[in-house]
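<context>
A single protein, sequence plus fold
<sample>
Here is the protein in question:
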Amino acid sequence: MNTFPVSVYGDAILREKAKKITKIDDIIIENIQRMFLTMRNANGVGLAANQVGWDKQIFVIDVSVVEDYENVKPLVMINPEIIEFGTELEPYEEGCLSLPFIKAEVMRPKAVKIKYLDTDENEQIIEDDTFLARVIQHEYDHLIGKMIPDRVESDLKKKMQHDLMRIMKRQIEPDYEITERDRK
């Protein structure tokens, strides 16, 4: 099984709202497996479907590689819907496979409650106020067409512009495969 190339900043699919999945079939399951393989190959902890060119409401998470989260099982969230955000905000430095070599402090709610379908099409609800909550919110953002630059102060976004342009022009060489330049 091969990894997917990762869509990077400037690729149109990253700004589109993902579509609901209506049926979980063998192709969906195979793509989920490829998403996990792609994420792990790139040393990520989360990956949304549109980051691999697939415009569906699905993301995968595996924080078990992070210290203190070794016992957290990998998650697949299909058609996720955030039900509630906590009121306490917390800053944290985030990275993104679609923004190679960029890290930025992002302010997000510390807690989140999310409803989603698992791969057996059972509805699940998770409430969390740990690092997992941040990863969930980050991946959910991808499904609604948002990325880190949309979540930072304007002065920080201006400072990122040079690096964002380098990513768009593919003047970067991450340790994982990225898409060819988007022609849209």
Helices lie at 26-41, 131-143, 154-168. The chain has a mean pLDDT of 96.
